[in-house]
TrEMBL record, chain A:
Belongs to the binding-protein-dependent transport system permease family. OppBC subfamily. One of its GO terms (cellular component) is plasma membrane. Residues 140-329 form the ABC transmembrane type-1 domain. The keyword Ion transport does not apply. The chain crosses the membrane at residues 42-64, 142-164, 189-216, 261-286, 306-329. It is a multi-pass membrane protein. InterPro entries: BP-dependent_transpt_permease, MetI-like, MetI-like_sf, OppC_N. Keywords: Cell membrane, Membrane, Peptide transport, Protein transport, Transmembrane, Transmembrane helix, Transport. It is found in: Cell membrane. It comes from the Bacteria. The lineage of its organism: Bacteria, Bacillati, Bacillota, Bacilli, Lactobacillales. This is Oligopeptide ABC transporter permease.
Automatic annotation (TrEMBL), chain B:
PROSITE patterns: ABC_TRANSPORTER_1, ABC_TRANSPORTER_2. GO terms for cellular component: plasma membrane. Belongs to the ABC transporter superfamily. CDD domains: ABC_NikE_OppD_transporters. Signal peptide: none annotated. This is ABC transporter ATP-binding protein. One of its GO terms (biological process) is transmembrane transport.
Amino acid sequence: MAANTQDFVIVGAQDSEANEHIAKPALSFWQDAWRRLKLNKLAVISLWFLAFILAFAFVSNFVMPQQQANSFNSDKVGVYKNLPPKSGLPIPGWSGQIKAPGDTTSTDVYASQNVPKSEKFILGTDNIGRSLAKRVTVGLRISLLVALVATFIDLLVGVAYGVLSGWKGGWVDNVMQRIIEILSSVPNLIIVTMLGLVLGGGVLSIILAIAMTGWLGMARQVRNMTLTLKERDYVLAAKSLGESSFKIAIKHLIPNMAGTIIVQIMMTVPTAIMFEAVLSAINLGVKPPTASLGSLISDASSMLQFYPYQVLIPSAMLVLVSLAFILLGDGLRDAFDPRASED
Amino acid sequence: MMDETPKKLVELKDLQLYFNQGKSNEVRAIDHVSFDIYEGEVFGLVGESGSGKTTIGRAILKLYEPTAGQILFDGQDVTHLKHKHLSEFRKDAQMIFQDPQASLNGRMKVRDIIAEGIDINKLAKNKAERDAKVQHLLDLVGLNKDHATRYPHEFSGGQRQRIGIARALAVDPKFIIADEPISALDVSIQAQVVNLMKELQTEHSLTYLFIAHDLSMVKYISDRIGVMHWGKLLEIGTADAVYNHPLHPYTKSLLSAIPVPDPEVESMRQHIEYDASIETDGKERQMVEINPGHFVLATPEEVSVYKNQQK
């Protein structure tokens, strides 16, 4: 026996200091979140895309006022109307040529309508000769404004309402939830129509409609999460240390439901953009000549067979912005959760 | 520790806590429970799951509102404390939780978790002092300096539980409720944590209420033991008395369930079944002192039976 024990050497466990050591480098919360976000390529692309779009929409306010996109020269409608996209480069489908329905060859519309040689519209023009590029830029601004307001209200009203309702519990919770149910039982369309009657339509009534009902989903989700989280031991620990309810909400509840909140917001944003588009499409939204992505699509949809680019360009913009928000939301949810990291 | 008239730190007087009171699903989590915890002792509370041990711990810390009865801490009634007095009480009484994973907020760094109590009670004047205090607490529980910037999920179970202990110690309490602090840990780590708690008790002259369902571990750390079942306290006595001379059949049943680390003895071990019907016969029972310091919940007839057993 004694001889055998000499063959064994205890490896490790002699140095308790070394046992306690964690080799992974210490990162701050934001460094860590950024590192994890970078692993998700789609989210990073979406982030840059949205950053570019937001910057573009913001800067365009100074370069291109609303009137410039709305105005047109009534004498020259015949010259400038329905011009297809022309890049000025020999790219097929982007050269100012379009195949009219029934024709076998494409015609150069710029030449046939006698547009001056030096002028070209990279996204084409609409049926009264307004540059589609300018109209889409303005429309994008309105869609993004609606999205930002919806996000802001979701975060401010939805989260606060949900946390309060879940945390207080009892009859307070009961009353607050019934209020949500009453509000959500009123169809959105009716609210917008009523607001339209009072305020005369436009962006303001859309924003007010979102302000009244957009936060309901968030409030419910946050309340559910609060009900779960408030029974967690770390909340009890904070309570037993004497932490105030407000601080518990800020430090313990909201950070731990960040994933749910982000997902909810990333659902809200496309919904709000679509909501605006649908309302504009049924003439309850922005009033002509103001353009939004929705009104551009609906105005051009009747001409889809003849001038498909007039529908496809704003639609593509709408889809890309919504998709970018969804993909970024996915990435952010994973990035903000330290436990989700696989390494 | 029991010699010269010890000071009572915590007194529970006929404490009752019912959930859903008056409804069909009423639960009597704590049913007329009275006991005292003396300064500097470790009081072990044992019983099966759902017997009300944890509820008692949380009720003492005012995480639950008792239905009736009184809780005295250091001679002061804490049952209806408000605001300033409540925050003072919370500095004196702290809790260590069962599941170290669930009791630490995964979104906060260890430094901020430990410093939470320091921040709330404004125990540090500036950031340097706060860091120094956190550092000291980490040393105390045997963790490294560089652990302060880590998140809880990077630690092992035993390390996490030590973070929980450091958080409780941050406000320099007199009394700590340890709510099954070791039952979520594996056996080798259990000893590590229990020994740390023992060390800290002597260094900081702490009083513990040690809640567990593992009688052998409770025997190891406790001076006195209380046995609970279905919200009632059945037996109280010194650790030796309860362990070696159990009176109540439930205590006997619990003791008979402890495995013995000797295969031959273990194979012979017979588990004593506990017939709970003796609790539900509707008779009035009171805590009766059978031997000095050894109480049991019994009817007068049962008292004579228990006394005969002792002879």
